[in-house]
Amino acid sequence: MNIVITGATGFIGSHLVKHFLKFNNYKIKILIKKGKKSEIFADTNIEIIKTNFSYSELLNVFIGVDQIVHLAGVRMPRSIKYVNIDYFYDANIKLIENILIAANKCNVRRITMSSSIAVYGDIIKSEYISENNMLNPINNYGLSKLIGEQLMYQFSKNTSIETVSLRFSQIFGIGEKANLIIQNFIDKCLKGEDIMIYPNGFQKRDYLYILDVLNAIETVINQDSMNGCYNIGSNIAYSAYEIAEIIKEELNSPSKIIISKSRHSFNKIVMDISKFQKETRWNPRWTLRESIRDMISCIN
């Protein structure tokens, strides 16, 4: 099967490429924006294409391609309350449109896009989030992802292309940024530093291990037919406090977990993944503790 992957140098993309290299039934091309480094794939036989992602360049790339896994894009910058839509337009909206138009011209069978729980917006009360929940993003990152999904939907209805948008919960794993919660807590416990749990640290959220993400994407690729938007999560929620306890135990760390005296929120948000499970028979394989143990084993 001939597959093109965008965003191959990112967190999910780099793991996915390494995963596909274990098998002989995938012929992989990766698209990298001109100017970006690609040394991590230097010792592989993967075809690396530097591109500006224009329609005309993509036309040449997509000839003979069966499926596209679209992982390229920009995320919401941390600690910034408002980001102009222009920041997301080229990478999260226009790029998808270019891919869809070129893929349709080249008779690509299916496009799978990484979307996000951010399309649902601010979930205040405890609940399982299904694909039928109201879509009401609270920032322009979520809005850009929702527009991307809508573009995918339009093409699935008006052309022969199948489009799949995967709404991932909070993804974590080996190689994630150090300031994200699980890697941050691991680093602190390794150094014996205290972990501060703030008021929202008792809110329970759905965390999905990167290896389950890869398995979900490969599951989609190998479906005979598939269209639509799907929640992908672990089907269980944990608070920052619970995560800190697990990491502390696994590392036998002297770090102290310090709880803020502020008022705490105890709501729980879990992705309802029953639609994806029913259509594909996929299930998450990694528990949170197993995932953390695997991450730690790669550090030691």
Summarize the structure.
The protein has helices spanning 11-20, 55-61, 86-105, 140-158, 181-191, 210-221, 240-251, 274-280, 288-299, and strands at 2-6, 27-33, 47-51, 67-70, 110-116, 127-129, 162-168, 170-172, 195-197, 205-209, 228-232, 237-238, 257-259, 269-271. With 300 residues, it is of the alpha/beta class.
Blueprint (SSEs and pairs):
Blueprint: E1 2-6, H1 11-20, E2 27-33, E3 47-51, H2 55-61, E4 67-70, H3 86-105, E5 110-116, E6 127-129, H4 140-158, E7 162-168, E8 170-172, H5 181-191, E9 195-197, E10 205-209, H6 210-221, E11 228-232, E12 237-238, H7 240-251, E13 257-259, E14 269-271, H8 274-280, H9 288-299
Parallel strand pairs: 1-2, 1-4, 2-3, 4-5, 5-7, 6-14, 7-11, 8-10, 9-13
Antiparallel strand pairs: 10-12
Describe this structure in words.
The protein has two domains: 2-168, 3-Layer(aba) Sandwich (Rossmann fold); 172-208 and 234-300, UDP-galactose 4-epimerase, domain 1 (Alpha-Beta Complex). The protein has nine helices and 14 strands. The longest helix has 20 residues, at 86-105. α2 (55-61) crosses α3, α3 runs parallel beside α4 and α7 (240-251) crosses α9. The chain is 37% helix and 21% strand. It is α/β, with parallel strands linked by helices and 300 residues long. It starts with a strand and ends with a helix.
